[in-house]
Structures are given as C-alpha cells and as structure tokens.
Specification:
about 400 residues, about 35% helix, 8-stranded mixed β-sheet, 17 strands, 5-stranded parallel β-sheet, alpha/beta, single chain
C-alpha cells in the first residue's frame, strides 16, 4: 500500500522523524540504503511504531509511491575535515530513479550551505529527468533533535524550512505543520542550511570557552561549577554551558575554510570555529594529564593502574556513542599501560582499537577495586554519592558529584 511519507535513512535522525510522523497519523515507510546506523530509540519504541503501521520497505520501488520523501542519511567529517556526503548521494540516487512529479523531497542531514542545490539537486534531476522547483519540490530543514531531552519533544521544537522556490517552501511547511507546533520559513535553501551551521558552531564555540575556563579555574583553585551556578542566575546575556572531557554528538562544527570553493562559498575561515575545535580536541588529553597527576599524588603510576570508566556514550541517558570522547580517553590510557574496565547501563559491549574492554557487572565493587574511577558521562541511574564513598579515587569530568566528594575536572 502507498504511504504518505518515506524516511530515507533510519538512524539517529530518521527513526525519530518516523516516530513523530506515525504518532501524527501519517502513513510512513522507512528505507535504508546501507547498514542501519545507531538510533536513540529503544527497541520497545520501534515495536510500538510497527504496531501503529510503520514498516521498513525492502523494495526501493515503494519510494516512488509517496508524497513526501525526507533524506536523513548520516554525514560526518572526513580525515580532511570536509563533510562526507557519500551516504546522502547514495540515498538521492536510489530515490531519484523512482521520483514522481509533485513529490516533495526534503534533506535533513547535516550539510553545509549549498549542498541541497549544488549536490543533491543534480543527482535527483539526472535520475528522475524532472526539474526541481517545477516538477517536484525541494527543500532543506535542519534537524534539531536533542537525544534524550524529555522537556523539548519533537512537536515542541520549531521547524525551520527553506525551499528552492516559495512553492517548495510552502509544500515542506505544509508537511511539517502536521508534526510540529510551529514552522519557521527561511528565505531559501542556503539560509536554512546556514541555520544548521550557526547552531552547531554556537554550541562548539561556547563549550570551548567553558572548557578553557575549566582548565583556568583548576589552576586558580576556583570551583567553576559554582561560578556557572551563580552566573546562570543572570536573566539576560548569558546561557550556561558546562565543561566536559570532550564534545560528542552528530552535529559537527563546520568551518567554511573546508567547504567547496565556489564563487558563492569562497572559503573564508571562521577563525573562532577552528580555535574552538582545537580547544575541544585537547580535552581528552587534559583528562589524561589530570588522571596521571591524581594517581601520582596517591603514590601510583598510570602503568598497571586499574581504571574504571563510567559512561561511554556522548550524552547522558542515551545509548548513542557518536563522537564520544570516551574512546580517545580509553585509547590514551591504554598507551600509558593502564588496565581498563567500563560501566554504562546503555552499552552492553564496548571495543577500543578492536579490543573488547571488560564491562563491570557490579558497579560498586568495580569502583572499590579500581585505583581510579573516571565519570565521563552522568547517567541518571548513577548514585554518585554512593560511588564517591566506594571509589578509591574519583575524577568527575561533569561536575555532577557533591562538593568535596570527588576531584572535579
């Protein structure tokens, strides 16, 4: 049976969109052009979606029987700091040969300004022999998903839409109005894409600032978390960000210096973004330095030390490990000769350098046995007061333990 919506890419972006669509009563199919990527949805949530009519299409021909297709293929920065659009391109090629007139195609994958028009549009037009803006609608909508956020659900977060033409914008806006309480129309594709750029870079720059403050405050003997607690009482001009062992997540900072050099994207670097990336990339090494110092102060060497890592996901109370600094921290500890174990209620098995890291079954026993316990992610299930009593030595990189109960970042 034909569906109203096809979600192409069933990972951390696509499945939550499909979940919201199914909840709104939209007949929805999903399609993946490659291996299914990690999602923040639980197996129970996916089963409820299936019971409500959602299904994963095995035949790509079904993509040609929908009114709206949303591409949610994963993107990431490659080794050259350029955005890898290969999954988006593959999704577009599969869709293009089945694209029918009057279909609305929307890209939600993270993309730099120009991707929808200069990269996606030619693929869709070549495969379909249709013209975007004339025969089918083309639009971009930045994904604003915040995994694990129980306050701001899908419907409560305004959706930004930018189309190739005003008609494209209106068609996409009509679709998203069925899912969210507010739709915000951008002037065009590039404006909508740049919203994603600004929001992502804003996060990374501000995290970099507070990460630098964390290092400074430690050197000065100042409790940064108390500083933040006081500063966030200011009713204007300040938004609280908190330091950590690194910056994870799917929203990667983009510097136009690494964008395609076309007359409309000249490649002028955002120096603050580049500097922020350098600062945030240094945080795992700073954590290692703090670990080595703490062990040394307690008469122990990092070599041979038993180190327990608590929380290896990039965000609290989710299973998503995308960009988590835990892997780099574990790798560096291995280089120092430490004996690692980990605990995470959301991660049943964890590998670093293709080697399995032992999982602690009894959290309190593991903390009592370890020479050093490092809190990398503050999952809600962790009893930090109890852990601070059991652990021989506890380094809290999230400022979550009671004052005086642990060494803070």
């Amino acid at each position: 049976m034909p569906a109203d919506l096809a979600v192409v890419g069933l990972g951390h972006l696509g499945l939550p969109l499909a979940q919201a669509a199914v909840a709104a009563g939209i007949e929805t199919i999903g399609y993946d052009t490659g291996p299914t990527t990690d999602s923040t949805l639980t197996a129970a949530e996916v089963r409820r979606m299936s019971a409500a009519g959602f299904r994963v299409a095995s035949d790509p021909a079904e993509l040609g029987r929908v009114r709206t297709a949303v591409i949610c293929a994963p993107t990431a920065l490659g080794p050259d700091r350029a955005l890898d659009l290969s999954a988006v391109g593959e999704a577009a090629r599969v869709l293009s040969v089945r694209l029918r007139p009057h279909t609305t195609v929307i890209l939600e994958s993270p993309a730099h300004p120009g991707v929808t028009e200069d990269f996606l549009r030619p693929i869709l037009e070549e495969g379909s022999r249709l013209r975007a803006g004339r025969d089918f609608h083309l639009a971009y909508s930045p994904n604003r998903l915040d995994p694990g956020n129980r306050t701001h659900g899908y419907a409560g977060v305004p959706k930004v839409i930018g189309g190739l033409t005003p008609a494209c914008t209106e068609s996409a806006a009509t679709f998203y109005a069925r899912l969210t309480d507010k739709v915000v129309r951008a002037r065009g594709l590039r404006e909508a894409e740049t919203v994603q750029l600004l929001e992502t870079n804003y996060r990374h720059v501000n995290i970099a600032l507070v990460n630098e403050m964390a290092v400074l405050c430690h050197d000065l003997g100042v409790d940064l978390w108390d500083v933040i607690r006081c500063a966030e009482t200011k009713p204007y001009g300040f938004q609280a960000f908190r330091p950590g062992p690194g910056v994870g997540g799917h929203g990667v900072p983009l510097d136009p210096n690494y964008l395609p050099h076309t007359p409309r994207t000249p490649g002028h670097p955002l120096r603050m973004v580049g500097l922020a990336q350098e600062i945030n990339d240094r945080m795992p090494q700073y954590v290692i330095q703090r670990c080595a110092t703490l062990l040394n102060e307690h008469g122990k060497s990092a070599r041979g030390a038993r180190v327990l890592l608590l929380g290896v996901t990039y965000k609290a109370d989710t299973a998503d490990q995308e960009g988590s600094p835990a892997r780099e921290i574990a790798s560096r500890l291995m280089d120092l000769g430490a004996q690692l174990s980990y605990h995470d209620p959301y991660v049943g098995g964890w590998r670093v350098r293709d080697r399995p890291v032992p999982r602690a079954d009894s959290l309190y026993e593991a903390a009592a046995h370890a020479d050093l316990t490092i809190l990398l992610q503050h999952h809600r299930t962790y009893d930090l007061q109890g852990l601070s009593v059991k652990a021989q030595l506890l380094l809290d990189t999230r400022g979550a333990t009671p004052v005086g109960a642990a060494h803070r970042l």
